[in-house]
Fold:
Amino acid sequence: MRKTRNLRIAVQRSGRLSESSVGLLRRCDVGFDNGLGKLRSTARDFPLEIFFLRDDDIPRYIEDGVADVGIVGENILEESGSNTDIVERLGFGKCRLSIAVPRGDAYTSLADLAGKRIATSYPNILGRHLCQHNVEAEIHTISGSVEIAPGIGLTDAVCDLVSSGSTLLTNGLTEVETVMMSEAVLVRRRELDAELEAIFASLLFRIRAVGAAARNKYILLNAPNEKLAEVVKLLPGIKSPTVMPLAEAGWSSVHSVIGAADHWNIVERLKAAGAEGILVLSIDQMIG
Ligand code: PRT
Ligand code: ZN
Structure:
């Protein structure tokens, strides 16, 4: 009997995307061992092999056919110029690639950087951005601690990833321009044979179900029947809320799914509308 092949997925070994990438696969019920220092692992209950790599290497590994799919920051993908396809935005590792200048320096537009020196680990993205705006500047490519470059007199500005902004702040820099927004994405090699394509479709089905679950909450509540119409109006549900009579006459139990982003707002309005015993639960997987 022919052994089923494994789809090979590349994830970051250790860094900002590692925990969420591994967590996502685990929430898809893909069980594997990722002990410290492990470079690859075979899933126990899904035809998947996981490669743990440096994030910068992931696009190349996929393009070269060493891995089939991967989880990587859009910033890395864009910088690599790789022709892998983004299949899904994953909602973690959110940041932006921004230009920053020393606090107090006059800045009105990108044109102010003409002839200036800019330190970055993203020379390709920055180069394209400057070119699009017809600005010629000198790009200094450095691989780490970009934010110290102006302070030590190496450059006039930086172009680096920002999330909270505290690194820029502590280094006396002000963000003046967003070059790109980024988050972790699921990417794939264009050409997959039928067998791998089918495995990928199953994995994607699970990833989407986990993603949808994370964006929603399951809500249960009791409401007196005379308030039911008002309560139900606040609850869209997947199709519409489930309403069932309680053992106590005159009361109903209402079940529904609501967006996680503003669920507190809805809960407050439900309470004000007469709902009682409101329970809000996390969802593991949600298939529309
Ligand atoms: O070893 P390996 O090469 O795999 O890892 P790495 O050190 O190159 O990458 P890592 O783990 O730092 O980041 C992996 C990915 O996380 C990046 O490619 C981005 O897609 C994403 N990400 C999200 C970030 C940030 N947020 C982020 N804030 N990557 C880096 N930073 C750095 C930034 O460079 C700066 O030094 O954090 C600092 C700024 O953070 P704030 O919060 O002070 O603004
Ligand atoms: Zn890296």
User: Anything to note?
Assistant: The chain has three domains: 7-93+184-213, 95-182, 216-281. The pocket of zinc ion (ligand 2) is lined by residues 54-56 (CB under 6 Å). The chain has eight helices and 15 strands.
